[in-house]
C-alpha cells in the first residue's frame, strides 16, 4: 500500500507510505490518496484530517519514472488529460473537503509535494522542512496546482520560481505559508495535539468556518486562477515537446535519487 489510513478519536490520519523513494508520487499513490480523502470526508465520525508522511522526506514530488510514456508516444493531449485528473482535480477535491485538514511536513517538499500540503487548511513543519519548486529549469512556470502567489505573496513566489532555491520552514512561517515550526522529533505529537483541539469544536461550526474562508478566496479569484494557470503550465509541456524534449528530466530524477 502506498497510503496508510487510520481513523481514531475523531481524527483520520492519512500517511504517504513510499519512504524508499522519498514519497515520490506515482499514479497508484495519488489514486489511493484521493480515495483516502474521500473515505475521511464521508465518515461522520471523522472531524479532522491529518496528512503526514513516513520517512525522512514529506515528498520528492512526481515520480518521473512512473508518469511518462516513451518519448515517441508522449503527446500534449496525454499530458493534459493525465495531469488534469490527478493533479488539478484531485488537489481541488482535497482543498474543498468540508472538514479541517492539517499537513505535517518534514524534510524535502519538492514541486508536486507542494500540491499535497497546500490544499490542507493548516501546515505544521518540522525545523528541517524545505519547500521548493525548481521546474522552471524544464521551461515550466511552476507545479500544476499553482498556489504559489496565494501561499507566498507575489514577490516571494517569483523569487522561489526564478531561482529554484528551497524555502526554509522559518521563511515559510514568516510569509504565512506555515502555521507553526516544531522540532522534527515532536512533529507528530504537535500535529496530533492541534488536531485533537480542533476536534473538540462542533462539526457544523468547523464546516462553516472553512467554507467562509475558502469562499472568500474564491471570490477573490483563487479557483479561476488555479484553473487558468494550469493551462499556462501545459504550454511549458508543449514547448518541451516541440523544441527541447525532456532531457532535463534525467537531471531532476538524479537530484531526487540523492534523497533516497
TrEMBL record:
Domain of life per record: Bacteria
Record-linked SUPFAM superfamilies: ClpP/crotonase
GO molecular function: catalytic activity
CDD domains tied to this protein: crotonase-like
InterPro entries, per database record: ClpP/crotonase-like_dom_sf, Enoyl-CoA_hydra/iso
Signal peptide: none
Transmembrane segments: none
Family membership: Belongs to the enoyl-CoA hydratase/isomerase family.
This protein's name: Enoyl-CoA hydratase
Species for this entry: Streptomyces himalayensis subsp. aureolus
